C-alpha cells in the first residue's frame, strides 16, 4: 500500500485529491497539511511514501519545503502538483528533489500514474509538462537566460520595479490599476520563482541578477 500525504494551501484541492484517490486499492491518503511548515512536522511523524506538494504556498513555498523534506527524508518521493508551467520553474522544482511534476488540470489517471511511478523510483512528468521541458531544450531557452531563475512576466517586472522604488502594495495597486490581492499574488509568485524567503530577499536577488530589466 502506497501511503500518500497531500500539501496544499487550499482545502478544496486537498479534498479533490482525496476524492480522486479514495477508490485506489493500493493507495491510501494518510494525512494532509495546508502549509509547508505544518507538512514538515506531520511528515516527520507519519513517514509517508509519496508527498503531493503544491508550489504556491504563503508561509514556506513548495521549493523550500521540497528541499527541507529531502534533507530530512532522503528516500521520500515528492510529486509537485502545480498550476505553474514555466520550464525553468519545473526544472527548479525537480532539482530541489521532486521526482514528478503534474499540472493541477491533469486527469485522474495521470495523478495515479505519477504516484505509482515515483514510488517505484522512476521520474514522472505529465504529458503537458514533458512537452514544455522538451520544447525549452529544443528552443535553447536555457542558454538565453541570464540567471538561474525562471523568467518574470511583464506584469511581475512592473511590480518588481515599483517594489524596488519602495512603493507599498496599495500604491502599486493604484499605479497599475489592479487590486491589492493581485499585487500580492504576483509578489508571492516572484518569491516562489526566486526562492526568496521575503521581500527583502527578493529585492537583493532582483538587483544581483537584474531581474527587473
Automatic annotation (TrEMBL):
Keyword Nucleotide-binding: no
Presence of keyword Transmembrane helix: no
Classification via Gene3D superfamilies: 3.40.50.2300
GO biological process: phosphorelay signal transduction system; regulation of DNA-templated transcription
An example molecular function term from Gene Ontology annotations: DNA binding
Keywords: DNA-binding, Phosphoprotein
One matching Pfam family: GerE
Coiled-coil regions listed: none
Residues bearing the modification 4-aspartylphosphate: 54
Domain HTH luxR-type: 145-210
Residue span, Response regulatory domain: 3-119
PANTHER family associated with the record: TWO-COMPONENT RESPONSE REGULATOR
Protein name in UniProt: DNA-binding response regulator
Organism: Pukyongia salina
